[in-house]
Amino acid sequence: MIDWLTHNLTGLGQLLAAAGTVIGVIGGLWIKSKRNDNSMQKYIIDTVRKENQEANLEIKQVKQEYQEFQKLHEATVRKLNEQIGLKEEENQQLRAKNRLLKAENDAYHAKYGGIDYQ
Coiled coil located at which positions (predicted)? Predict the structure, then answer.
């Protein structure tokens, strides 16, 4: 009987040992894969965080450049508007002077007649 038990239990023990080994290997691989997943997730999170920080810095830089450009644009528009105002004033003065010269010319022609270039 002991031989029978030993013979049957030895095979059962070997089967259980093999099953335990397989379960251990699978569990180890699962844990290793879980660690790899966690390290991959950590890598992805770190990469995304780094890219996000770089993007935020670029956005801040672009905003600052835009504000500087906007100030330059406003100064240029202001300067051009001043120049336009001065030119309009000069234009009005020249038109007034032309009216006076035309009136003087008309008075001259009325007094002395037209010039004959024949």
Answer: 45-111
Residue 1 host element (H or E): none
45-78 residues labelled b (16+ CB within 10 A) or e (exposed): eeeeeeeeeeeeeeeeeeeeeeeeeeeeeeeeee
* Lowest mean pLDDT segment, chosen from 9-13, 50-54, 95-99: 9-13
> Of all helices (H) and strands (E), which one includes residue 5?
helix 2-112
The pLDDT value recorded for residue 51 is: 92
Give a three-class secondary structure readout of 49-110.
HHHHHHHHHHHHHHHHHHHHHHHHHHHHHHHHHHHHHHHHHHHHHHHHHHHHHHHHHHHHHH
55 Rama class: left (phi>0) / alpha (psi -120 to 50) / beta: alpha
Place of tokens 């040992």: 17
